[in-house]
Amino acid sequence: MILVLKTNVEEKKIEELIRTLESSQIRVERTKGVDYTILALIGDTRSVNEGTILNSDIVHRIIHVQEPYKQANRLFHPENTTVKVGDCTIGGGEFAVIAGPCSVESEEQILTVAREVKKSGAKFLRGGAYKPRTSPYSFQGLGERGLDLLKLAKEETGLLIVSEILSTDQLDRFVRDVDIIQVGARNMQNFSLLKELGRVQKPVILKRGMSATMEEWLMSAEYIMAEGNKNVILCERGIRTFETYTRNTFDISAIPMIKHYSHLPIIADPSHATGRWWMVEPLAKAAVAAGADGLMVEVHPNPEKALSDGAQSLTLESYKKLMNEINLMIGKLAC
Fold first, then answer.
1. Which residue among 124, 240, 264, 274 is least enclosed by CB atoms within 10 Å?
2. CA angle, corner 178, sides to 174 and 183, nearest 5?
3. Assigned architecture for domain 2-63
4. What is the pLDDT of residues 92-129, one digit of tens each?
5. Where are the domains of the chain?
6. How big is the chain by its Cα radius of gyration, in Å?
7. What is the value of pTM for the model shown?
8. CATH class held by domain 83-334
9. Which of these, 196, 192, 215, lies nearest to 204 by C-alpha position?
10. What is the spatial distance between Cα 143 and Cα 135, in angstroms, rounded to a whole number?
11. Helix-helix angle 316-334:277-290, to 10 degrees
12. pLDDT, tens digit, for every residue of 213-237?
């Protein structure tokens, strides 16, 4: 339930209404928009007497929210959310580029990539220290050594670090050394992990699950937000369909859909969406045209020798070319 307050209401009266509502064990989230102040009621609202509320001299109207996700719902928060990470912002008109290898393999590899993607305008360096792989015999990442190397790359280049967490026992280290914690598709519905991430004030990229509906995806975001962490960034990375030619099927409609129903920023991962490096460029452009707040792109100095996901990784040169074209496109879109 949402209460839309009248304009120019005294602060004292708003506080009195909030206290009354909270006395009924209802949590109240307050959002101040351009024209209205909104009170979002979270919890069992059956005890709320709507007649009494509407008779209040400060309530303009009541809106009933049908969707099960509340805090991620645009009705609860009409303005677009922006997530501040260091000196960078994701959402709210700022376009973010996150680039780097699927997995951290060596000091030389990660430093080379970090230096080059920064030259092309990236503000964030992605790199997997822990790698969830379909096969137990595939490269699983360098673990803590990988995080050490990401930290080294950040110290040299100033790039902010994005890396994927697999379990709650890694959380302390990630909170300390990673700027944005990524939740991969396989963990989108790992609710115990989501709850723990909700209890730390660290930005989280939440990737869409391989077969997740929009509602399931937003409900996973709700798990994080319900614990107090509002710094959630959604990431469309393709879903599993009957098509086997590409690794996944990139759901471009997810971007405007999320923009319509949620206030959370959304970025796109065209690398995982296709599994083919030569498809990354057109799908990255499509994501920009659809209104994405940023891109996550896999880049490797020598994709043919990559220990994971080389087939979908751009070379340093092809990444530079893509960024030049994206920058021109963003300029055109801004006109």
1. 240
2. 70
3. 2-Layer Sandwich (3.30)
4. 888 999 999 999 999 999 999 999 999 988 999 999 99
5. 2-63, 83-334
6. 21
7. 0.88
8. alpha beta
9. 196
10. 17
11. 20
12. 999 999 999 999 999 999 999 999 9
